[in-house]
Amino acid sequence: GPTYQPLTNHKNVYYTGTVTLGTPPQPFTVNFDTGSSNLWIYSQKCWWSLSCWTHKYYKHSKSSTYKENGTNVQINYGTGSMSGFLSVDLLKLGNICSTVTFAEATSVPGVFEAFTLKFDGIFGLGLEDTSVSGVTPIFFSIKDKLQQPIFSIYLNRKAVDEVDKGGEILFGGTNQSKYKNETLTMHNLATKGIWAIPIDRVYVGDRLAVACESGCTGVIDTGTSLIVVPQSELQAMRKFIGSTADKGVVPCSDIDKYPPITFLIEGKNYTLTSSQYISQIKFLWSETCFDSLDDMNLETIWILGDVFLSNFYTVFDFGKKQIGIAELNK
């Protein structure tokens, strides 16, 4: 049957679960990321990055199933990078066992990451176009062990920092207790090889905020916390929302009065209410609220990150190359 992977929600910024590598199994906390396709874990051979001293690391010398590969690899993310070399070993994910090629990280720059990020590596769940160094995407290596070549994700924004209560990934099926089955709509991918779907229009309240005349693409990315908007559209979005132009700040006292944001995707509306998209950040004794929008210099590409995904149940179908979105059971 399907394999169940509980998640922990870290301050609504990222979600992690546990996998093991090697024989005997070495456990690691990983960030499951649909926006990339490689698996990497800190390496025993990582000496010069501070992060390597503040996280668990993989010891290939202690694994009887380790096979050398040695190809150098570098992976760049929206907010950071890693470099290292490829290795081969046995991955255990729930009740799935599979031999996979992954990267051992020997350099992960950044002092911030060393003390704030509570994961020992990134587990990419993406398709072939987001894979680096021609490595088979990790899900391709495990999908033959599943009844159906799909995985589905539920993220729980309410259970912050509670171990294994922050949602789940189901590999090989869907958890029908989590969503309204009649609302599940399958969408074709906007571009082959990336988990992304076409966006027709974006509304704020009942006003058309972005017309997408030359088409918009929504990347469905569990590895991004916020909703990333093309730079050219951010000001319009904030003007319609009523948040401040530079940081998107709103007063925390009346979150409910702000308009909903609706994404029209292949003729179907997906709406976030203001309390669903406005994030509250507590720091010491002060609190700031902001609209959870960020911008990147991408002309027509939106990234629908965890702020969006935590309000729906999402299904990723490798066989049909489709993404399904459903309403959550309340």
Explain how this protein is built.
The chain has 330 residues and is mainly β. The chain has 2 domains: 3-171, Cathepsin D, subunit A, domain 1, CATH 2.40.70.10; 181-327, Cathepsin D, subunit A, domain 1. Helices cover 9% and strands 44% of the residues. The chain is built from 5 helices and 26 strands. The protein has helices spanning 111-116, 138-142, 231-241, 274-277, 306-309; strands at 3-6, 8-10, 14-21, 26-33, 39-42, 67-77, 80-93, 96-107, 121-124, 150-155, 167-171, 185-188, 196-199, 201-204, 207-210, 216-220, 227-230, 249-250, 261-265, 268-272, 279-283, 286-290, 293-296, 301-304, 312-317, 322-327. The strands form 5 sheets. It has a 6-stranded antiparallel sheet with strand order 1-11-10-25-26-12. A 6-stranded mixed barrel has the order 3-4-9-5-8-7. Strand 21 and strand 22 form a beta hairpin. The longest helix is centred in the last third of the chain and has 11 residues, at 231-241. It is globular and about 60 Å long. The protein starts with a strand and ends with a strand.
The gyration radius over C-alpha positions equals 20 Å
Unreliable runs, pLDDT <50, ≥5 residues?
Answer: none
SS-based class: mainly beta
Overall structural domain count: 2
CATH class division of the largest domain? Mainly Beta
In the sheet with the most strands, the strands line up as 1-11-10-25-26-12
Describe the secondary-structure layout:
Layout: E1 3-6, E2 8-10, E3 14-21, E4 26-33, E5 39-42, E6 67-77, E7 80-93, E8 96-107, H1 111-116, E9 121-124, H2 138-142, E10 150-155, E11 167-171, E12 185-188, E13 196-199, E14 201-204, E15 207-210, E16 216-220, E17 227-230, H3 231-241, E18 249-250, E19 261-265, E20 268-272, H4 274-277, E21 279-283, E22 286-290, E23 293-296, E24 301-304, H5 306-309, E25 312-317, E26 322-327
